[in-house]
């Protein structure tokens, strides 16, 4: 085994990512969407959860996009820390339970 493989296999972050892939995927999606919004100067209001836009305008995609929308870098960082700290749920209960849990929490507010 070479040094890079040894580093990856024994690195705590890589071990946690392997144990909680859903957490990692959610974080990557959050970061990529925020970078896209930042790069193209897209206001969070254009993807936010507004009843009128979802029901009357039939913009159903807002129910998903709003859970990945962050208004600024601090919001993204704090949300990412919160999500990463819930990875213990995925490790203990499993990825399916964690995905379902995260899905319901995302839509609860």
Automatic annotation (TrEMBL):
One Gene Ontology molecular-function label: serine-type endopeptidase activity
Occurrences of domain Peptidase S54 rhomboid (ranges): 58-85
Transmembrane segments: 21-40
Entry-linked Pfam families: Rhomboid
PANTHER family recorded: PEPTIDASE S54 RHOMBOID DOMAIN-CONTAINING PROTEIN-RELATED, RHOMBOID PROTEASE
Gene3D superfamilies (UniProt xref): Rhomboid-like (1.20.1540.10)
Matches recorded under InterPro entries: Peptidase_S54_rhomboid_dom (IPR022764), Rhomboid-like_sf (IPR035952), Rhomboid_protease_S54 (IPR050925)
Protein topology in the membrane: Multi-pass membrane protein
UniProt protein name: Peptidase S54 rhomboid domain-containing protein
Native species: Dictyostelium firmibasis
A cellular-component GO term for this protein: membrane
Keywords: Membrane, Transmembrane, Transmembrane helix
Subcellular location: Membrane
